[in-house]
Amino acid sequence: MSKRYRNRxxxxxxxxxxxxxxxxxxxxxxxxxxxxxxxKVPACAQCNRLKSVAxxxxxxxxxFGGQHRSAAEDLVxxxxxxxxxxxxxxxxxxxxxxxxxxxxxxxxxxxxxxxxLDHEKLTAWAGYVAIGLTWHHWRLLVPLDHNVxxxxxxxxxxxxxxxxxxxxxxxxxxxxxxxxxxxxRGVREGNVTYWEILPMGGLMLAGDPHQxxxxxxxxxxxxxxxxxxxxxxxxxxx
Length: 238
Ligand SMILES: [Zn+2]
Prior knowledge:
The protein is α+β, with helices and mostly antiparallel strands. It contains 7 helices and 11 strands. The protein has one domain. It has a 5-stranded antiparallel sheet, with helices on both faces. A two-stranded antiparallel ribbon has the order 1-2. Strands 3-4 form a two-stranded antiparallel sheet. The site of zinc ion has 8 residues, from helix 1.
């Protein structure tokens, strides 16, 4: 492996030394042919391992809700081998599967299904991705005393971020990886960053314990001083 990623500060914990290059978006999210050129960052063994716990779970689960071009194909080719290796997750999904009716973005109501989603794993993963992208795009390490707060964005949160992006022309990034399997945009103000992550072309995420009434398609991550308020993004009162 290239020396570029060894003996540097791990971008995730910002404390220990890196021993490896971590793919910000795990390679396992993508078919073999589409794993080139993914963003990589220096990571320590511990962070690499913790992040992979969330990734093992999400690479098996997220394709079920995919709306991107290759979503149906991924579900057939990539998910079964993963569930074969993870019998416990397969049982959890089978037990939690529900038939539901869902409104598409175009307003059509179609039969669909819902699966139980571990919000803690999803948001923890989004936090890793945001601080990885912060280093990838700006070579910026999130300061140690900053809070990294990942959330499922409420409608109000999506609008608040949209307003923020619309008002900026400098220090913004936006990209899609894996033919739209993930899309993201970020804006930086000094060493404070705001990220919006759209997994799998727009998953319908419901049942966030912080916002039980909301259906969300995007994740937001704010990395900044502990005094930074999240309420306008989460849509919580106050
Ligand atoms: Zn680390």
